[in-house]
Amino acid sequence: MNYFLGLFVSGLTRGSIYALLALGYTMVYGIIELINFAHGEIYMIGAFTALILASVLSIAGLDAISILVIASLVAMIYSAAYGFTMEKIAYKPVRNSQRLSALISAIGMSLFLQNYVRLAQTSNFLPFPTLIPRLGFLQQLTFQVTSAQFVIFVTTTVVMILLTLLIKFSRVGKSMRAASQDKTMAMLLGVNVNRVIALTFVIGSATAALGGVLISSFTGQINFYIGFMAGIKAFVAAVLGGIGSIPGAVLGSFVLGWTESFGAGYISSDYEDVFAFAILVLILIFKPSGLLGRPENKKV
Amino acid sequence: MVLDVRGLTMDFGGLRAVDQVDLQVNEGEIVALIGPNGAGKTTFFNCVTGMYVPTAGTVTIARPGTDARQITRMRPHLITAQGLARTFQNIRLFPEMTVLENVMIGRDCRLSAGILGAIMRNKKTVAEEKQVVLDSYAMLEIVGIGRWANETAKNLPYGAQRRLEIARALATEPFLLLLDEPAAGMNPQETRDLVALIRRLRTDHQLSIFLIEHDMSLVMTLSERIYVMDYGKLIAVGDPGEVRRDPSVIKAYLGEDVSA
Amino acid sequence: MSSQATTQPQPGRYLAYAWRSLLVSIWFAILTFPIIVIRANTITGTITWRWHNIGWIVGGTFVGSWIWRYFLERKRAGAEATMGPLRQRLAAARAVVTQAARRPAVARGGIAALLLLVVAFPFVGGMYQTNIMTTALLYVVLGLGLNIIIGLGGMLHIGYIAFYALGAYSYALLNLHFGLNFWLALPVGALVGGLFSLAIGIPVLRLRGDYLAIVTLAFAEITRLVLENWSSLTFGTAGIRNIPRPAIAGIRLTLPQTTTFVYFIMILMVVLTIFVVNRLENSRIGRQFVAMKEDFIACQAMGVNIARTKLAALGLGGMWAGLAGVVFAARTTFINPASFTVWESIIVLCTVVLGGMGSIPGVITGALVLILVPEYLRAFAQFRMLLFGAVLVTMMVFRPGGLIQKRRRAYTISAQEKQVAAEIGDPGIQG
Ligand SMILES: Nc1ncnc2c1ncn2[C@@H]1O[C@H](COP(=O)(O)OP(=O)(O)OP(=O)(O)O)[C@@H](O)[C@H]1O
Ligand SMILES: [Mg+2]
Predict the structure, then answer these.
(1) In terms of domains, do C251 and C394 share one?
(2) Chosen domain end from B119, B153, B172
(3) What are the C-alpha distances in Å from C401 to residues B117, C113, C148, C283?
(4) What is the ipTM of this complex?
C-alpha cells in the first residue's frame, strides 16, 4: 500500500510539473495553432537562471527562503523575456506563412536555445541547490511526501487557479479567448492581437520557468538537455487533455504523470518514456480531440 | 433528378447551421441557393460534398441515365469521383502550382497510373500523362484562360482564378457543378462573361448547375429555380419571380435590394 | 508592389534602423546577461564572471538586428519590386547559365566533367577525404528521402532517423543471426524502413499535420529506447560490432579499397535516388503530393484520396532511410543507439530546409554544405548545432523555399493541339 501511495505521490508531482509546462503549450496552441517546440527550452533556461542566481546569492550570504523567492521570481521574469523575444524573432514573421514554416522555425529555435546554453554554460550535469526548505509537519504523515513534492503540488494548484481566474474574468483573458476563436474578428472588435499573442508567450514562459525551478530543486540536477524531453511530455499531456483547453492540460498532465509513475513502478522503469508515447498514440487513434477537447471542424 | 437532399441538418456545438433542409436539382437545371450572410449556404454545400459529416439527413445523387445512390457520409474524394464537383467561396487553388497543373489535379480521379508506373514510365503511363495535359488544357480553353497555362496560379488576376477553379472542377467530369459565390469580387463585365460561361457549360457540356450567389441580378437572370435560406432554415423556393415577391424573403434581406 | 518609391528601403532609413538596433542590442545584453556572463559551477562552488562576452552580444546583436530589419523590410516590400542591382546581376547570370545548359553540347560537357570529378575523387582525395564524402552522400540520400515527405508531401517528419536505425539494425542483426549478406540486406532495409514509416503514419492519417511531427518524434524516441533496453536482441548501448563491410564474392579488399568501393556504392545510390525522386516528382503521384501540401482541403475536394497519398509519401520516404541505414552499418562496421538520436533527424531536416524543400538540386546542395563545411572548418564544429538552429529559423523567416527554390515544370502544348482544344472551348470570351 505504501508502495502504491509512493507511486501515486510521485505521479502527482510529475503531473504538477507537466501541468505547469502544458499550460504554455495549450495557450499558445489555442491562439496561434503552433506547437512551440522551444517551450521546453524556456523551462530549461528558467532553471539555469535560477541556478546561477542562487549561486551568486548564496555567496552573497542570503538565507534560503530569500534565495528561493528571488531566484524563482527572476527566473520567471527572464524566461518570460525569452519567450517574448522568441515570439518576435521566430514566430511573428512566419505567422502568415504555411504552418510547416512555423513548425520548422520552432524546432530551429529549440535547437538554438539548447546549444546556446550548452556553449555559454556547460554540457555536463550540474547539481542544483536544494532551495526548498524542509517542512516539519510532513514527517507526521504515514507515507513519504518530501517537502519538494508538497511545494510543487501546492504551487501548481495555486498557479492553475490564478490562471483560470485570469482567463475567465480579466479583460486580458477575454481578449485571449476572443483571439483564439477568430483572430480577424477579434481585431475588428478592437483587440490588439499582436499584444495578446505576446502576452500569451509571456505568461506561458513564466509558468514554465516556475516548473523548471521547482523540478530542478526536486531532482537536484540540471543540464542543457532537460527541457527537450520535459517539453515533449508536456505537449503529450496537452494533447491528452485536449489541446487548447486549460482544464484539459491539467487533467492530461496528471493522467500522464500517473501513467508514467505506475508504469515505471509496476512494469519497468526502462520504458518510462515509452508509456507516455504509447498513451499519446492511443489517444490520437481513439479520441483525437483529447479528454476534454471539443472535436474540431475545420472551416472550409 | 440529379440531386436530392432530404432533411439535411448540421450542428456545430450548440449552433444549428443547417436545419432540416430539403432541396432538389433536376437534370440540366440551373438552381441557386441564396440567403443573408451566415445563413448556412456554404455549410450546406460542405455537407453535400462530404467536407462535413451532416448531423442528420440524406443526400442522394443520380448521374443522368444511371440509378440513384446515397452519398451521405461518403468521403469527399469518393463523392467527387461520383460526379459532383465544386468551387470554393474563398478561392482555394494550389497557389504555387501552375495553372495547368491545378487542372491536372482535377483530372486525377479519372487516372490510373500508380507509383511503379511513375518510376518505370511505361508506355501506358506516358500516354496517360500526355492525355492529361491535353485534356486539362482543353478545360482551360473552355473557361478561356488557356494562354496562362504555364503561369503560377497565385499570379493570375482574380477573375481568372475564379475561372481556374471552375476549370479544375470541370476536369473531374462532373454531372453536377456546385459553385460557391462564383461572381464574388468580379466587375460587371467579368460577371457577364461568367453568366455566358455558366449557360454554355449547361448546354454544351450537359451539366446541371447549383450555385450560391449574393449578386441578385446574376441569380435572377441565370437561375430557373431559387432556394432561399435564413438562419439555417429554408424559407422559400420558387422561380425568380415568385421568390422576388415572397414577403418572407424580403423580410430576411431587410433592405437588401432583391428586386435587382 | 505598386509604389516602388515608398516601399524601397531608402538610405536614410538605414540610419533610423540604427537607433532601433541599439535598443535591441541593449535588450539582448540584459536578456543574455545571466547565462552569457556568469558561469556558476555548483560542483566546485565557483562563479566565473565573463564580462567580455557582453561586448560580443552587444556588437553581434546590433549588426544582426540591423541586417535582420533590412531584410524583413525588403521581404515585406516584395522581393521583385526591390530587386537590387546585385540581385539583378545574379538573376542575369543565372539566366545565362540556364541558357547555356540547354545547349546539348554544353550539357554533355558539364555531365562529363562532373562524372570525371566524381570518379577521380577517391583516387585524388585519399581515404580520409573519401570517407567524409561518403558520409555527405549518405546525408544526400537521407535528405532526398525526407524531401519526399516534407518537401513534396508537406508533412513535418522529425523522426526520420528511426528508419535509418531500423535499416542499420536489420542488416546487423540479420547478418549476425542468419548470415544475410550486404546486397540482400539492401532491399530488406528499404522494405523495413518503408513499412515502419507507413505504420506510424496510420494513427495520424485523419489528424492535422502537426500531430505527425510529434508522433514521429515519439516513434523515434521509442525506437531508440527499445534499441537501448532490449539488450537480449540488440545488445543495448554496447551496440553491435564486426558488421561485415560490403564485398564482392570471392574478392578480398584492403581497407582503402573498401572505402573507395563504399564511396562508389553511395554514388550509385545517389544516382538511383535522384532518378527515382525525379520521376516521382514529374508524375501523377508527385502532383498529388504537391497539391496535398498546398491545400489538402481543395485536394480532397478534387477527388484525391488524401489518406493514400499521405501513406505513399511516408512509405516512399521511409524506404530511402532504411536503404541508407544498411550502407551506414556496413561502412562503420559498428552501430549503437547513440548514432540515432533525434538531433540526427533534425540535421537531415536542416539539409532539406536549407537547400530547398521539394528541389532535388537544393537538397543535394544543402546536404553537401551542411555536412562538408563543418568537417573542413573544425574551428566552428562546436557551434554546428547552434548554427543549424539559426539556419532553420532564418530560412523560414526569409526564404522558406530554400536556397535553390523549386520551379514548377512548364508543359509544352503544340499549336495543333491548342487548335483542337480551342475548338472545344468557345473562343468568344477570353477571361
Ligand atoms: N466549421 C465550423 N465550425 C463552427 N461553426 C461554423 C463552421 N462553419 C460554419 N459555421 C457557422 O455556421 C453558420 C453558417 O455559415 P456559412 O458559412 O454556411 O454561411 P453562408 O450562408 O455561406 O454565409 P456567407 O454568405 O457569408 O458565405 C455561421 O454562423 C458560421 O459561423
Ligand atoms: Mg458562404
Answers:
(1) yes
(2) B172
(3) 29, 29, 15, 21
(4) 0.91
